[in-house]
Amino acid sequence: MAPAFDEWLAQSDFFGSLSPEHRRRLAELCRFRDLGRHETIFHEGDRGTSLYVCLTGSIRVYKSTASGQEAVLKVIGPGEIFAETILFEIDRYPATAVAMEKSRVAVLQKPRFLELLEDPGFRADFISCLMGKLRRLADQVRLLTVSDVETRLFRFLGDRYTGQSEFRTALSKKDVAAAIGTTPETLSRILQRLREQGRLVWEGRRIRIRPPKASSDASDRPRERA
Question: Which of the 8 DSSP states describes residue 48?
Fold first, then answer.
C-alpha cells in the first residue's frame, strides 16, 4: 500500500515537499478513508487521534455557535492537511469536519506520527513543510486584503476546477462565501451581477463561466471588498 500513499502524498500541497525517503516513511503510516457526502470525520471536542490529508473531494471545517449555527472556518480541498493542531497545541479537535461530497482522505495517527518526529531529519523536513504552509496562509491573507470579492471568486473556482468552463459543484454558495472570505449576501449580489453580464451562471449545482467581455467601462464596474 505504501507506494500508492506515497503517490498521493507527493501531490499534497503540504507533504509534497518532503524528501522522497521521508515521504515513503510517512506513507507507510497512512491509511485511506473513503467518505460519503455529509459524513462526519470528527466532531468539535472529540479527542484528537489523527491528522488528515484531503486527497479528493472537499471537507467543510466549522465551529458551532452559541445559537447552534455553523460558522464555517475553511473549505479543505485536495492536497490540503487539516487537524494538524492536535500535534502540538491541544489534544481535542477544535472544530467539526464533514465531507461535502464523496471524498477520500489519508489518515495519519497521532502517536505514530509523533514517533516519526523523533527523527531529527524528518522533524527538520516537517518543520520546513509547516513554514511553507505559513507562507501560503500569508499569501491568502494578502489576497483577501488586496483583491475584491469577484476576483477571489474566480480565483477560487479556477483553482478548484482548473480549465473547466462548465462543471458541477458539491459546494453550496454559503460554503464558497466562507472559502473566499465574504458573506453569503455579498456573494449573492455578485452572482446576480455576473449573471446579468453573462459571465457566470450558477443554477443548482451547475456553474457556467464565460470569459469577460472587453468593454470600455470594464474598469468602472462596481467592486465589492467584503
Answer: -
Q: How far apart are CA 21 and CA 164, in angstroms?
A: 35
Rounded to whole angstroms, the Cα distance separating 178 from 47 reads 26
3-state helix, strand, coil in the chain (%, to 5): 40, 25, 35
Q: What are the DSSP calls for 15-45, one per residue?
A: GGGS-HHHHHHHHTT-EEEEE-TT-EEE-TT
Rounded Cα distance, 62 and 146, in Å? 25
Answer yes or no: are the C-beta atoms of 30 and 9 closer than 8 Å: yes
Buried-exposed string 10-36: b where 16+ CB fall within 10 A, e elsewhere: eebbbbebbeeebbebbbebbeebebe
Q: Are strands 206-209 and 166-168 parallel, antiparallel or unpaired?
A: antiparallel
Query: How far is residue 218's CA from residue 211's CA, in Å, rounded to a whole number?
Result: 13
Considering Cα of 115, then 117, then 120, then 126, what sign does the dihedral take?
positive
Q: How many CA atoms lie within 13 A of 123 on its CB side?
A: 7
Domains of the chain are 2-144 (2.60.120.10), 148-220 (1.10.10.10)
Task: Express each pLDDT in 29-87 by its tens digit.
Answer: 889 999 998 999 999 999 999 999 998 888 999 888 777 777 778 888 888 889 988 98
Cβ atoms of 74 and 15 closer than 8 Å: no
